[in-house]
Amino acid sequence: MATQHARSAARVMMAPAVILLLGWMLVPLTMTLWFSFTRYLPMRGDSIERGLDWVGFENYVRFIGSSSFWPSVQATLLIVGGVLVITVILGVLLAILLDQPFWGQGIVRILVIAPFFVMPTVSALVWKNMMMDPVNGMLAHLWRFLGMTPVSWLSDASVQSIILIVSWQWLPFATLILLTAIQSLDREQLEAAEMDGAPVMARFWHIVLPHLGRAITIVVLIQTIFLLSIFAEIFVTTGGSFGTRTLTYLIFQRVVDSQNIGLGSAGGVYAIILANIVAIFLMRIVGKNLDR
Amino acid sequence: MGRITLDKVRKAFGDVEVIPPLDLTIEDGEFVVFVGPSGCGKSTLLRLIAGLEDVSDGQIRIDGKDATAVPPAKRGLAMVFQSYALYPHMSVRKNIAFPLRMAGLDKAEQDRRVAAAAEVLNLTDYLDRRPGQLSGGQRQRVAIGRAIVREPAAFLFDEPLSNLDAALRVGMRLEISELHKRLKTTMIYVTHDQVEAMTMADKIVVLRAGHIEQVGSPLDLYRAPRNLFVAGFIGSPKMNLIGGAVAAGHDATTIGIRPEHISVSAEAGDWKGIVGLSEHLGSDTFFHVTCEGIDGPLTVRVGGEVALDYGQTVWLSPDPAQIHRFDQNGLRIA
Amino acid sequence: MARAVTTRRKIATTVLAWAIGLLIFFPIFWTILTSFKTEAQAINNPPLFWGFDFTLENYAVVQERSDYMRFLWNSVIIAGGSTILGILVAVPAAWSMAFVPSRRTKDILLWMLSTKMLPAVGVLYPISLIFVEFNLLDTRGGLILVLMLINLPIIVWMLYTYFREIPAEILEAARMDGATLKAEILYVLTPMAIPGIASTLLLNFILAWNEAFWTLNLTAASAAPLTAFIASYSSPEGLFFAKLSAASTMAIAPILILGWFSQKQLVRGLTFGAVK
Predict the structure, then answer these.
(1) Which pLDDT score, from 0 to 100, does residue B218 have?
(2) Which of B232, B262, B286 finishes a domain?
(3) Does the distance separating the beta carbons of C183 and B102 come in below 8 Å?
(4) What is the DSSP string of A68-95?
(5) Within a domain: B334
(6) Does residue B333 lie within any of the structural domains?
(7) Do C170 and B85 make contact, defined as CB atoms within 8 angstroms?
(8) What does the alpha-carbon distance between residue B43 and residue B33 come to, in Å, rounded to a whole number?
(9) DSSP state, B252?
(10) What residue in B sits closest to C170 (Cα-Cα)?
(11) Which of residues 116-175 of B touch C (CB under 8 A)?
(12) Which of A66, B26, B112, C122 satisfies CB 3.0 to 4.6 Å to A268 for a cystine?
């Protein structure tokens, strides 16, 4: 359809975006990859100008071999998995609820979506102090009201607390996407099932849930990518202690706190590989959608 | 003026040749319909004339001047699209005035011509609405209005009625024909609906796989289809095509007989058969009759209300003067 | 067709939905409420929902002690700058991919998306080095650049999905109507694309405003936006509930309001057009 002239113009117009992103991806990635094979301790005077010692896969082996590695993988899996389970299940239920007719739909929708727009540092601080403070937090008041001893949430139930905070932030996202998906469900399909004699639960299992399948997959994949790199929530609340040191946070500490760039970079490469595994599945779905 | 000549026009997308070299002349003031099944290249042909597609080879002349490399905006043609392609952010008035604004006409002249077009198309009361607030038929009229204000050399219509419901379609068909009678401007109209072709055209161009199968007036095509494809495509219900021994009896590979050229008798006739389904339209009745020695049921058209029972035995007789004969290549035997 | 729902069921749904909505909103509500209390009342036991002395003092104190306006201004500049810069780069790219698609368009789009998946922590040190090298550390310019780059894939994608919805026939109609390329872009394409561009601007402004990895790691004093300002409250000496609440309220209020306008675009933007 397009003429030759239009094609070359298109290439020129695409160039800035492509070049910028290519640079953004390749330059730091190459550097990380390079550092990961070297001994690079700036505190001891290592620097690029003086040349870095090549150490092969030593950093990769040491990163996995360190005593903090497996706990960090465990923390990551717990937090990501916990948040996914909570947001998807509650998200489906909430989406179905919000899809029903009731008074004040618009306002309730706004209330439910609001947490997504709260910046991560604020939501972490608000939860840490206003909600979870063992003396003055709302939960402590509630516990005392119910005759129980208030809990030091962020030290005694640290992982659960982080899961709660992050779920609160991401539940709106899941709900909103699932609600959009539910609204695209053909009402006649449900009515046909009703005519076929399917009760409410059967309609949910056989029609609503399969219809939501794709949206749920997308929620899971996108959230996984974002959740794998949650940072501010941990930085502000526990600072990685009490078993909340995720892979991302461990790498951050290796790079920033202990200034072991080689080791941190090896960890970074692991994180990049992990993110890419998830990304491949997401891209496949998105790509299919493009062909439409 | 609007005489359009296609001279060995060819179109290929990459390696795929959609339109093999083709010659066609459209006379000034003619209403020409391109008809054919979907994918036959009729829309591509129209877009080549419009200039929305580049011609791979050959030449397009408008009023004798080579227009092959002229951009669409400069060809002086107007087009009505299948989706109407109205500008959603402009009022009806602005939509219709858009080509005039592009041509740099002064405001008073724009208003005058828009008012005149709106008058003709019954859009005067809707001039300040947005396309989104109009019904399908009204949108269609706006698209036509946008085309007529600039007084083009020719109008191009790309399946303009396919998004309308049946009743509206009949009405718009008449309106477009009426418009042609009044403006006497060349119109090229693309459709897959042979009824539209038959009712509107001065000249029909039947296309298949980019080839022109036959060009002629509606009645020429009805009376003397050049080949089996045209025979089957033009006319409703479709012509009955019969092969085998019956055709051989007429010195042909295939013979064709239209449903309206077969008479039915309960007592005697040429072909004995059993009545299947009947379709009662009130004005006509169609019978599907399975005959001995003939593959597949034959469709028979009888005027008025006639009742035959399902399973009843009848005799059919074709009008000998109306039998079309085709050879082994599917071409008409004169 | 929708059927009439019994009033009883509607009441039950209303009660349940409001209860859940208020529960989810509660932390935000509580923060806003606390910001108007005195420090003593903020930690009163039992907590005070009403009957406290309404005061704006906390807001004044926050501004006075920490120069809140400077952080706010940094946030506006960084989020606004990165979004506008991103749009300027993305509009031509998205336009050409939507209207002059080639065989590689899909691959380019997916590749752009894949750069968004790059874990930030994996490239933290290289970026810091580059920032030091080019004197970008703790500058608004540096952050504008980084945030523009991390949001560029989303901007391109959103614009692409919006542009693709503009039917090609309309542009062809304009051509048939005698419009030159300039007129086509000016009178037909731009007016039709503006809603999409506006939504893209809005969502990406929000995303940039809330970004909290690079803003925390690449700023110190002078270019720190609100994310970093709030994080500084996590140190124990800064801990006063009412003031923390006032600072938090100021940091989230503008974006909450913008966010409510962008609900629909949020879904499209964050799912890369896969859910609409």
Answers:
(1) 94
(2) B232
(3) yes
(4) THHHHHHHHHHHHHHHHHHHHHHHHHHH
(5) no
(6) no
(7) yes
(8) 11
(9) S
(10) B85
(11) 146, 150, 156
(12) C122
Note whether residue B280 is domain-resident.
yes
- Give yes or no for a contact between B158 and B147, defined as CB atoms under 8 angstroms apart: no
> For residue range A150-170, what is the model confidence (pLDDT) as tens digits?
888 888 888 899 999 999 999
Q: Which CATH superfamily is domain A67-259 in?
A: MetI-like (1.10.3720.10)
Radius of gyration of chain B (CA): 24
Identify whether residues B167 and B255 lie together within a single domain: no
> From CA B260, how far away is CA C169, in angstroms rounded?
42
Question: Within 10 Å of residue C49's Cβ, how many Cβ atoms?
Answer: 9
Under the banding of pLDDT at 50, 70 and 90, the label for residue B274 is: very high
Q: Of A238, A207, A244, A228, whose CA–CA distance to A277 is shortest?
A: A228
Burial B285-299 (b: 16+ CB within 10 A, else e): bbbbbebeebeebbb
Dihedral angle at the C-alpha atoms of B61, B62, B68, B73, nearest 10 degrees? Answer: 180
Question: Best residue in B44, B82, B89, B148 to probe C by mutation, most C CBs within 10 Å?
Answer: B89
Question: In residues, how long is chain C?
Answer: 276
Partner residue opposite A279 with nearest CB, options C114, C130, C209: C114
Interacting residues of A172 by C-beta distance below 8 A, sequence separation 6+:
A112, A113, A114, A115, A116, C24
Between CA C260 and CA B170 the distance in angstroms is: 48
Q: Nearest residue of C to residue A125 by CA position?
A: C234
Name subunits touching B (3+ CB pairs < 8 A). C
Please indicate, yes or no, whether residues B300 and B167 belong to a single structural domain of this protein. no
Sheet holding B313-318, edge to edge: B262-265, B313-318, B271-280, B284-291, B298-303
CATH code, B107: 3.40.50.300
Q: What is the ipTM of this complex?
A: 0.84
Domains of chain C: 7-59 (no CATH), 65-270 (1.10.3720.10)
Domain residue ranges of chain A, discontinuous segments joined by +: 67-259
Residues B221 and B259 occupy one common structural domain? no
Q: Are residues B88 and B112 in the same domain?
A: yes
CB contact under 8 A, C175 and B83: no
pLDDT per residue over C34-86, tens digit each? 888 887 777 777 777 777 778 888 888 888 877 788 888 899 999 999 999 99
C151 and C86 Cβ atoms separated by less than 8 Å: yes
B147: three-class secondary structure by DSSP: helix
Q: Give A11-36 pLDDT, tens digit per residue.
A: 888 889 999 999 988 898 899 888 88
Q: Are residues B223 and B242 in the same domain?
A: no
- Measured between alpha carbons, how far is B187 from C51 in angstroms, rounded to an integer? 80
Whether residues B218 and B179 fall in one domain = yes
Contact C177 B77 (CB under 8 A): no
**Domain limit, last residue, from B232, B255, B281:** B232
Closest listed residue to residue A37, CA positions, set A263, A268, A250: A263
Token pair 């399973």: residue: B311
Residue B57 buriedness (CB in 10 A; 0-12 / 13-18 / 19+): middle
- Residue span of the structural domain in which B152 resides: 4-232
CA–CA distance, A31 with C122 (Å, rounded to integer): 10
As for how many domains chain B has, the answer is: 2
Helix (H, G, I), strand (E, B) or coil at A165: helix
HSE-CB of B215 using CA atoms within 13 angstroms: 9
* B139 Cβ neighbours under 8 A, 6+ residues apart: B84, B86, B131
Calpha distance B8→B19 (Å, rounded) = 10
ω before B37 within 30° of 0 (cis)?
A: no
Instruction: Report the residue of chain B nearest C195, measured CA to CA.
Output: B89
DSSP strand E in chain A: where?
38-39, 53-54
What is the distance between the alpha carbons of residues C87 and C201, in angstroms, rounded to a whole number?
A: 7
- HEC profile of A116-157: HHCCHHHHHHHHHHHHCCCCCCHHHHHHHHCCCCCCCHHHHC
